[in-house]
């Protein structure tokens, strides 16, 4: 059996703020925006980074499910970039929340990485693979 992870569904507090974060800071392409009624609030946003899709959905419609859990808690997503130091500088220039870690560091397993949080607390590990292909 062959399988491939293609997307993630993220519940968010503020659709516009999350769309701006992923588009402007993470470089995600806005593929689709949906509202249940014309001119109404967004109920789904589909964004793409390479071949990976993120589907953003307002958390408030599922408030009972989140009564004891916060969106983003325990979620850590990774994205590989060609130049982690340039991406770090871009994040600083755009005002991203870099409170998870400091500057990019070299890890024992061959990655150079740093971490940041999106507006909902989802943690993103941004890394450059310097392992010689061990982790691709």
Percent helix range: 10-25%
Instruction: Report on the biggest sheet.
Output: 4 strands, mixed
Radius of gyration: 16 Å
Form type: globular
Low-confidence stretches: none
Please indicate the percent range of residues in DSSP E strands (runs of 2 or more).
Answer: 35-45%
For the biggest β-sheet, the strand order reads 1-4-3-2
Give the integer mean of the pLDDT values: 86
- How many beta-strand elements? 8
Oligomer: single chain
What is the distance, rounded to the nearest whole angstrom, between the alpha carbons of the first and last residues? 20 Å
The computed structural class is alpha/beta
SSE pattern, N- to C-terminal: EHEEEEHEEE
How many helix segments? 2
How would you summarize this macromolecular structure in one to three sentences?
The protein is built from two helices and eight strands; from the N terminus they run βαββββαβββ. With 136 residues, the protein is an alpha/beta fold.
């Amino acid at each position: 059996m062959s399988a491939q992870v293609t997307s993630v569904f993220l519940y968010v507090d503020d659709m516009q703020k999350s769309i701006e974060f992923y588009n402007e800071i993470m470089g995600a392409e806005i593929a689709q925006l949906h509202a249940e009624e014309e001119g109404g609030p967004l109920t789904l946003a589909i964004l793409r980074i390479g071949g990976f899709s993120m589907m953003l959905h307002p958390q408030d419609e599922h408030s009972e499910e989140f009564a004891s859990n916060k969106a983003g808690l325990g979620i850590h997503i990774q994205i590989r970039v060609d130049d982690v130091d340039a991406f770090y500088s871009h994040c600083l220039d755009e005002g991203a929340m870099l409170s998870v870690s400091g500057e990019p560091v070299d890890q024992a397993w061959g990655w150079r990485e740093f971490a940041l949080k999106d507006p909902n607390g989802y943690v993103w590990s941004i890394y450059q693979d310097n392992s010689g292909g061990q982790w691709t």
